[in-house]
Design a protein that fits this description.
The complex is a heterodimer. By secondary structure, chain A is mainly beta. Chain A is 0% helix and 54% strand. Chain A is globular, with a radius of gyration of 15 Å. Chain B is globular. The interface between A and B is medium-sized, with 30 and 35 residues.
């Protein structure tokens, strides 16, 4: 079964408008983290935002915010005031794993299939 | 700046060859990952490692093996390359996660990718 589901293969948005990219996840681990990455056409992977399973508030980073609904297991990315440079592939990812020692833990980081966002002028 | 370096940007190999993809990180990260990226399939985890000589299978380990003899280096090995292993391969690394309840997080940093073509 898919651990991370991104149901929108492609999205279009007008410049300066807000857009929401969907992400749902599946885990039985009480301690997990959710990430969003951006991959422009150049191919690099750029970290955008993080939400921990114990975080009480939704994460925000500049124009990026995460709409975290724990009971629904969703972690949608909201981009406000879209810019042409936001056109890229966006990936949702989940970290899950056990804490094994005082130095930290190993964990598995799995990604969704991605959403290709196109910002129109 | 964190740096994750993959040894080759582009690679062309013949069917049946043994292929080594190398990844080196310079930030003393405990966790390292190998993914392959294919259109419409996103990033799929092949193997990951959380310590020297430690490895765990990801979602698609078949046809691959890995080696982590030193903390900074994580190698992906295609024992006998096949055409269905033609893909973009991405390496990533990350510090160990904070314990539950501790502040902070550790994002993964990625290499530039290796586009492997098996002919």
């Amino acid at each position: 079964a898919q651990k991370i589901t991104q149901t929108q293969p492609g999205m279009f948005v007008q410049e300066k408008e807000a857009v929401t990219l969907d992400c749902t996840y599946d885990t039985s681990d009480p301690s997990y983290g959710l990430f969003w990455y951006k991959q422009p056409s150049s191919g690099e992977m750029i970290f955008l935002i993080y939400q921990g399973s114990y975080d009480q508030q939704n994460a925000t980073e500049g124009r990026y915010s995460l709409n975290f609904q724990k009971a629904r297991k969703s972690a949608n990315l909201v981009i406000s005031a879209s810019q042409l440079g936001d056109s890229a592939m966006y990936f949702c990812a989940m970290r899950e794993g056990a804490h094994r020692n005082s130095g930290g833990s190993n964990y598995k980081l799995t990604f969704g299939k991605g959403t290709l966002l196109t910002v129109n002028p | 700046d964190v740096k994750v370096t993959q040894s080759s940007r582009y690679l062309v190999k013949r069917t049946g060859e043994k292929v080594f993809l190398e990844c080196v990180q310079d930030m003393d990260h405990e966790n390292m990952f190998w993914y392959r990226q294919d259109p419409g399939l996103g990033l799929r985890l092949i193997y990951f490692s959380y310590d020297v000589k430690m490895k765990e299978k990801g979602d698609i380990p078949e046809g691959y093996s890995v080696s982590r003899e030193k903390k900074e280096r994580f190698s992906l090995i295609l024992e006998s390359a096949s055409t269905n292993q033609t893909s973009m391969y991405l390496c990533a690394s990350s510090k160990a996660t904070p314990k539950p309840g501790a502040a902070g997080y550790t994002e993964a940093f990625f290499g530039q990718g290796t586009r492997l073509t098996v002919v």
